Amino acid sequence: MSNMKLGVMGGGAWGTALAQVLSEGQPELLLWAREPEVVAQINESHENSSFLKGHRLREEIRATGELDELSDCDGILVVTPAQHLRASLSALSDTDAALILCSKGIEADTRMLMSDVTRELRPNNPLAVLSGPTFAHEVARGLPTALTLACEDEALWERLYPAIAKTAFRPYFSDDIIGAEIGGAVKNVLAIGCGVVDGAGLGQNARASLIGRGFAEMQRYGKDRGARPETLAGLCGLGDLVLTCSSTSSRNFSLGRGLGAGESAESLMSNRSTVAEGAFTAPVLQQDARSREVDMPIVDAVCALLSGEAHVRQVVERLMSRPLVAERR
Ligand SMILES: NC(=O)c1ccc[n+]([C@@H]2O[C@H](COP(=O)([O-])OP(=O)(O)OC[C@H]3O[C@@H](n4cnc5c(N)ncnc54)[C@H](O)[C@@H]3O)[C@@H](O)[C@H]2O)c1
Ligand SMILES: O=P(O)(O)OC[C@H](O)CO
């Protein structure tokens, strides 16, 4: 049992699943949730029917609506949606806790990664990123899961892994924080594309081609932002890309499936209570890639579909009529 006191900031599906797995063997795990009804459900009925229905949660999880309570923790897993990270961190009181970022996205107005936002607001806190192929409902059930824990140095990994590694939850060390973040942010956009392929009935060949060429886009963009190729080829890049591009359990894939079936992004987004990060990441990723002169045609296609600028048939035509080039670029 680790002596490190962990807390979780965010009571959505992923924050709740993380609280469930990380409370194994701990006397108490503190989970901050924004919604009073989520706090009440967890403390009174040991469930989070708003965001992670159907899972009985450990009694060691204690929910709170008071963000200040997290300040006493040695490590805080930050699990808010990417576009709310800045506001959520700003509301947190001073703390020495290590901040373990679990959100997958790029900040819309600034093109900053989650680690950039965190370093701007909390320059003195030790920083890590936890990312990989992790559907919340599977982690909550205790199914075997492996993922990347990228830490700013190996000393932080040595402090964190005893509290994070569990029977069915296996972190691998990386010191490439940027790589871990780029993998998680970009795969969400590509998963929307794969959902479109599915919804429009374009076939399994097209889905696999999108994963392969999407991975090439992730590598090109990652290289320009300083990610290491081997990080992107690991759990937090290719591993998560394969998971999210293959299953209707993915919110991003499901959103794309609706688009592929002809529904508008506007109606699909307005009917959601859960977050499909790719829809927010896609436009900022496109802008950033263009400013860096990084070619990302699949990301462009997803943006065109999300904005309603083009239909599926048009984006397929655009992608298939691009100049023929060497695969390795
Ligand atoms: N669900 C998963 O399987 C999973 C796995 C790995 C990573 N993630 C990442 O975790 C992050 C959180 O996703 P989730 O699945 O827990 O969310 P969710 O869709 O289950 O729930 C939405 C969350 O957004 C929060 N929220 C809504 N409006 C907010 C606001 N104005 N300010 C702050 N928070 C607000 C809600 O409180 C809730 O916690 C995302 O970046 C996601 O990509 C999710
Ligand atoms: O449901 P999604 O598409 O947000 O994906 C959840 C996780 O990121 C999968 O690793």
TrEMBL record:
Pathway: Membrane lipid metabolism; glycerophospholipid metabolism. GO terms for cellular component: cytosol. One of its GO terms (biological process) is glycerol-3-phosphate catabolic process. Residues 6-155 form the Glycerol-3-phosphate dehydrogenase NAD-dependent N-terminal domain. The keyword Cytoplasm applies. The active site is at K187 (proton acceptor). InterPro entries: 6-PGluconate_DH-like_C_sf, 6PGD_dom2, G3P_DH_NAD-dep, G3P_DH_NAD-dep_C, G3P_DH_NAD-dep_N, NAD(P)-bd_dom_sf. NADPH binds at W14, R34, K104, A136, R251, V275, E277. Sn-glycerol 3-phosphate binds at K104, G132, T134, K187, D240, S250, R251, N252. SUPFAM superfamilies: 6-phosphogluconate dehydrogenase C-terminal domain-like (SSF48179), NAD(P)-binding Rossmann-fold domains (SSF51735). It catalyses: sn-glycerol 3-phosphate + NADP(+) = dihydroxyacetone phosphate + NADPH + H(+); sn-glycerol 3-phosphate + NAD(+) = dihydroxyacetone phosphate + NADH + H(+). The keyword Nucleotide-binding applies. NAD(+) binds at G10, G11, G12, A13, W14, G15, A136, R251. It is found in: Cytoplasm. It comes from the Bacteria. PANTHER family: GLYCEROL-3-PHOSPHATE DEHYDROGENASE (PTHR11728), GLYCEROL-3-PHOSPHATE DEHYDROGENASE [NAD(+)] 2, CHLOROPLASTIC (PTHR11728:SF1). Catalyzes the reduction of the glycolytic intermediate dihydroxyacetone phosphate (DHAP) to sn-glycerol 3-phosphate (G3P), the key precursor for phospholipid synthesis. Belongs to the NAD-dependent glycerol-3-phosphate dehydrogenase family. This is Glycerol-3-phosphate dehydrogenase [NAD(P)+].
